[in-house]
Amino acid sequence: MPAKRTTAATATPSITKSLSSGPKTLTANSSVSEIVHHVWQQYLTTTPERTMLLDAFMAFLVLIGGIQFVYCVLAGNYPFNAFLSGFSAAVGQFVLTASLRMQTSTDKAKGANGMGVGSDGVSHERAFADYIFGSLILHFFCINFIN
Amino acid sequence: MRWCLSLLLFCFLAVVNALSSSGNRLLVVLEDATEKESYSTFLGDLEARGYNPVVESPKSDKLSLFELGERAYDHVLLFPPRSKGFGPSLSPKNIIEFMNKDGNVLLALSGKSTTPSAISSLLLELDLHLSTDRSSMVVDHFNYDIHSAAETHDVLLLQRPGQLRPDTKSFFDGEGVLAFPSAAPHTLGDSNPLLAPILSAPVTAYSYNPKEDFGSVEDVVASGSQLALVSAMQARNSARFTLLGSVESLQDKWFSATVKAPGDGKESETANRDFAKQLTAWAFKETGVLKVGKIEHHLAQDSEAPSVELNPKIYRIKNETVFSIEVSEYKYDKYVPFEVPENDALQLEFTMLSPFHRLDLQPSGKTENSSIYSTKFTVPDQHGIFSFRVNYKRPFLTSIEEKHEVTVRHYAHDEYPRSWKISGGWVWIAGLWSVVAGFLAFVIMWLYSAPTSTASTTKKTQ
C-alpha cells in the first residue's frame, strides 16, 4: 500500500512535467490512435532507462522465439532437440528477464542513495546477480541439449 | 591323451557314418523267413551300401527296438505282417517312440493281405488313412502290365515321380517305368503338414476290394491321383517315416521284369531297383540330410580388415551387418555343397518376437563339401535382444533351425551427429546463440546504464 502511494506521488510531478512539454491531455472522445500515441509518449517519458532496456530485450526475445516457432511449424521439427532447446532458451530467458523486471522496476524511487531495494527486500544488485546465475544455468542446459 | 582319444573317437564316428548319415544298424522285420529269398536282391543292395540288416521275425522274443532305454537300431524296415499285427515289441506306441528317438521307419504294405488294425491305428496317428476294409488294392484299366495282369489289371505301370512342387528337390526322379503289383492305396489327411506324397496313382486308377465281388464300386472314398502309393512323413526331429503301398515291387521278380502297357506296344524294363534304392536311401537318411557348418556374423567393412570382430555379442542400431551360414547336404556317402532349389530361398530372419527383417541368403562361396550363403543388412532402428534365425523346413529335406542371440544397443551419447551437421536445425541453433548474444549485450548495457537515473529519481522524490 505505501508503495502504491509513493508511485502515485512520484508520478504526479513527472506527469505534470511531461504535460507541459508533451502532447495535450486526452479528452473524453479522443480517437484510438490518439490514445495509443498518448500511452506511448507516457511510456517513453515515465519509464526509467533500465526498465526500457529490459523491455527492449524482452521484445527481442519474443521476436526470436516467434521466428523459431514459425520455422518449426513451416519446416517441421526434425532435429526436435534443436527446436526444444532453441525455443526454450528464448522462453526461459524471457521468464528470467520478466522476473528481473518485477524485482527492479516496481519501486525505482524507493531506495535511498541509489541503493534500489525491491518490495520483498531484495536489492537490485542481488536481483541482477540472481538473474545472471539463472541465465547461465539456462544457457548451459540449452547448449548441452542442442548437442 | 585326451587329444588321442578324441582323434580315435572321430575315426570311429567316421567309420560309423560311412554310409547313412545316421548309422547303419538296420532291423528288417519279416514274418516268414522263406520270403527272404524273394527279396534277396533288395536286401543285397542294402548290404552292399553298408547296412547291417538284421532279419527278425515279429514273433521272436528277443526282438526289441530299444536296449537300456536307447535305440537298438537306427532304421527299421517293416514288411507286411501275416498275422494280426507285429506283436507287443512293435506296437504303434513303440514305433512312435522309436521315431521320437530319431529312428527311421520304412513300412511296406501289400494289397494281397488285409492290413492289421494295429498298423492302421499307427498310420492314423500320422494322419495316413487306409480304406475302411483295409484290404483294397489299386486297379487301373489303362496303365497295367499286359504280361502279368492281363485279366486283373492290378499291376500298375507308373512314371517315376518328379518334383513334388516347383520349389522342392526331387530325390526320386529318373528314367524308366515302375511296376507296382497289388498296391494297397492310402490317402493323406490334411491335418498333418509334415506329410508329403512321393508317388500317387494315375488319374484313371481306383481302389477295389477283390474279396467283395461287386459289379460296380460304391461309395468311393478316393480315386485317381487322390490315392497315394508311396508317402513320406518327416517329423519335426527329422525322423523319417515312409509308407510303401506295394511290397511286391521290391521283389527280385519285379526288379528285372519286362512290362508292357496296353495301347502302344512297347516293352520296357522296370526301374524298380533304382527306385527302391532312391526310396531306401531317402528313408534311411542317405539323401536330403542338411548340415549346418560355420555360422558367422560381423560388421560390414569396405576392405577385409582383420580387425573386425567375428560373431560379436552386441551390435548398435543401424549397423551394417553381414551374416553367413555354411550348409552341406549328405548325398549317399559324403557331404556335398547344398544348392537351394530353383524357386526356393534360404532365408535369414532378424527377429525380436517377430521378424524385423526376412532376407534371402545369396550363395557367396563354396568349399569342397559345403556352400556358403550370406547376406548384408542394416540392423533396424530398435534396440533390444535380437536373434539371427534361419528356419528352413522343406519336404524331403531335414530341417534347419538356427537361432543366435545378439544384443542391439542404441547410440552411445557421443555417437549422435553434432547439431551443426543437420542443416534443418540451423535456425534453432542461430536462435539459441542470438539469445545468448542478446543476453550478453543486455548485461553490458545494464551495467553501463545504472547509477545516474536512480540518483535523479531519488532526488526528485525528495
Automatic annotation (TrEMBL), chain A:
Chain positions covered by the region annotation Disordered? 1-22
Q: In which pathway does it act?
A: Protein modification; protein glycosylation
**Coarse class of the protein's main subcellular location:** endoplasmic reticulum
Example GO biological process: protein N-linked glycosylation
**Entry's InterPro entries?**
DAD/Ost2
Output the Gene Ontology cellular-component terms: oligosaccharyltransferase complex
List the Gene Ontology MF annotations in alphabetical order: transferase activity
Keywords for this protein: Endoplasmic reticulum, Membrane, Transferase, Transmembrane, Transmembrane helix
Kindly list the places in or outside the cell where this protein is found, as annotated in its UniProt entry: Endoplasmic reticulum membrane
Topology class, membrane: Multi-pass membrane protein
Looking at the UniProt entry, the stretches that span the membrane are 52-76, 128-146
User: According to its UniProt entry, what is the function of this protein?
Assistant: Subunit of the oligosaccharyl transferase (OST) complex that catalyzes the initial transfer of a defined glycan (Glc(3)Man(9)GlcNAc(2) in eukaryotes) from the lipid carrier dolichol-pyrophosphate to an asparagine residue within an Asn-X-Ser/Thr consensus motif in nascent polypeptide chains, the first step in protein N-glycosylation. N-glycosylation occurs cotranslationally and the complex associates with the Sec61 complex at the channel-forming translocon complex that mediates protein translocation across the endoplasmic reticulum (ER). All subunits are required for a maximal enzyme activity.
- What family does the entry list? Belongs to the DAD/OST2 family.
- Subunit annotation: Component of the oligosaccharyltransferase (OST) complex.
Q: What is this protein called?
A: Dolichyl-diphosphooligosaccharide--protein glycosyltransferase subunit OST2
- Organism equals Aspergillus coremiiformis
TrEMBL record, chain B:
Enumerate the UniProt keywords alphabetically: Endoplasmic reticulum, Membrane, Signal, Transferase, Transmembrane, Transmembrane helix
Q: Which GO terms describe its cellular component?
A: oligosaccharyltransferase complex
Its Gene Ontology biological processes? protein N-linked glycosylation via asparagine
Has the keyword Nucleotide-binding been applied to this entry? Answer: no
What range does the record give for the signal peptide? Answer: 1-18
Residues spanning the membrane: 426-448
Q: Which Pfam families does the record cross-reference, listed alphabetically?
A: OST48_MD, OST48_N
Q: Primary place of residence?
A: endoplasmic reticulum
| Residues of the OST48 middle domain | 305-449
Question: What pathway or pathways are given for this protein in its record?
Answer: Protein modification; protein glycosylation
Q: Where is the OST48 N-terminal domain?
A: 25-283
Any GO MF annotation of the entry: transferase activity
Q: Where in the cell is it found?
A: Endoplasmic reticulum membrane; Membrane
InterPro entries from the UniProt entry = DDOST_48_kDa_subunit, OST48_MD, OST48_N
Its placement in the membrane is given as:
Single-pass type I membrane protein
Question: Which branch of life, at top level?
Answer: Eukaryota
In the record, the note on similarity to other proteins reads: Belongs to the DDOST 48 kDa subunit family.
Q: How does it assemble?
A: Component of the oligosaccharyltransferase (OST) complex.
Please give the function described in this protein's UniProt entry: Subunit of the oligosaccharyl transferase (OST) complex that catalyzes the initial transfer of a defined glycan (Glc(3)Man(9)GlcNAc(2) in eukaryotes) from the lipid carrier dolichol-pyrophosphate to an asparagine residue within an Asn-X-Ser/Thr consensus motif in nascent polypeptide chains, the first step in protein N-glycosylation. N-glycosylation occurs cotranslationally and the complex associates with the Sec61 complex at the channel-forming translocon complex that mediates protein translocation across the endoplasmic reticulum (ER).
The entry's protein name is Dolichyl-diphosphooligosaccharide--protein glycosyltransferase subunit WBP1
The organism is Aspergillus coremiiformis
